[in-house]
Amino acid sequence: MQTIKPLNSPSFSCKILINPSKKSTITLPRTRIPPLPSPSPPSPSSSNSDESKIFPLKIDPPKLNAFQKIASNALDMLEKSVVTKLEKKKKLNRMVDPEIQLEGNFAPVHESPVQHGLDVIGQIPSNLTGVYVRNGANPLFEPINGHHLFDGDGMIHAVKLDSKNNKASYACRFTRTSRLVQEASIGRPVFPKPIGELHGHLGLARLALFLARTSLGLVDATKGTGVANAGLVYFNGRLLAMAEDDLPYNVIIKEDGDLESNGRYDFNGQINDPMIAHPKVDPITGEFYTLSYNVLKKPYLKFFKFDTCGNKSRDISISLQNPSMIHDFAITESHVIIPDYQVVFKLSEMIWGGSPVIHDPNKVSRFGVLSKDDHDESRIKWIDVPNCFCMHLWNAWEENHEESGDKTIVIIGSCMSPPDSIFSGSDEPLKSELTEIQLNLRTSESTRRIIVSGMDLEAGQVNKTRLGQKIRYAFMAIAEPWPKCSGLAKVDLVTGNVTKFLYGNDRFGGEPFFVPSTKEGRGGGEDEGYLMSYVRDERKEKSELIIVNAKNMKQIALVKLPKRVPYGFHGTFVSSQDLCNQSYC
């Protein structure tokens, strides 16, 4: 097995909170990323959890002419002696302070090649033969200044499950985005971080440095600037990794459970727009729906629809007065539900020293209802839902109002308040309440009902074979203490009853993913299936994958992981059948 050779650039240390009363550090060398073809994987016993060893990837530094070298050195000197020095004098709020954002199990880890023969406690259910993958933010380099939880480079953690032999393996890999590969070749971060760094005049200075580097050919922004760290979806033979700021990246799951990046995916040249992190696949038709927003120019929002073979059938511009933060949306059997919130992008705020992501108190949040069959936006119906911001929408469906009989859209989402708290660092405690929103299509009126009060419920799932249809249950992460998750909650959307599965003292996890117990969810109850999530025992310093019976919320299996798995974002399960049908081109 090869080990990493020290590079000329120095190491850096991130503070890690192991116990509330005990601090230690983990040192991550400023290394180049590992190669795509990994050598023979080591056994768990040979590598343990040694995060100082990764496989080296030789990425040649960019070839510059004499003028470019002079210009590059001048810009580097300007950045170091002026911009960075001024940034060090500025106090960071807690939402962009790297010592807080990268503390404890939020700290980054190195890649891990496949490790087989993991300890499995209990029995892996028979229909869970496949790979559970979960995305997350894992910065390759030490932040120069501000760093938000959403800013890190995308890393996918994968556990391959073999239910027949009750075996499991683990691997984690960076998604080789254009941004990551370019920064690895240069040896340091040069792309500005949208949330952590782009604040006020110094944020404008960082933008100016980046634009200067791109105009001189020192970096290439035309191949994408995104980190692909948020969503994962399997569609038409491809696992796609996404964030809001770029096209998705195709990631191949290899036969042994390892992961290999396969470049940006533009649907065979059909789109060149960034895609939000939460596209929807209609469980009845198999069609793929997604949105794309642009913060710089109109149209600020686009809607795309693709058939089951990945052919684009809709490309609709949606008129918005200002670019809005739209991380998620919803579909019903016949409609697409598009939010337009009070959290907006206003780049001019940077001139006055502020953040470009702001809460606009003069704007009224609203939802647009667009028919799936429409070819333009002319028939979209907008309905106001005041003071509403849902980072995520879990499902939506159509029904007739029980009293008036009016056609109604029902939306299930987690409403956050204050709406911009995850960006602004507000001192007001964040609340995320599971909420039902009803849109009356005849009267254009809306109502809201908090389903569960007094509990922060985020990062959730429904049975995706019922997406767009009326459901009874939602499976949520208990986001307490924020941003950690102390357990899982099965919520009865009709009665509001909550059945909890708590991880235990000093144990925290993330979003659960629901896998139905019957093929394609047919013939079984809505809650007949399994929940999967990574869990970190902060006291014992161990990571696990847990499998919970969604019917009774009891744990049935646990996989002991050989590496620390940081807290992350969203995941999916790729079945053995889907693995066989992957597209490699």
From TrEMBL:
This is 9-cis-epoxycarotenoid dioxygenase. GO terms for cellular component: chloroplast stroma. It holds the Pfam family RPE65. Its cofactor is Fe(2+). Binds 1 Fe(2+) ion per subunit. The keyword Signal does not apply. Belongs to the carotenoid oxygenase family. Fe cation binds at H278, H327, H392, H570. The keyword Iron applies. Residues 32-44 have a biased composition (Pro residues). It comes from Solanum commersonii. GO terms for biological process: carotene catabolic process. Residues 23-55 are annotated as: Disordered. InterPro entries: Carotenoid_Oase.
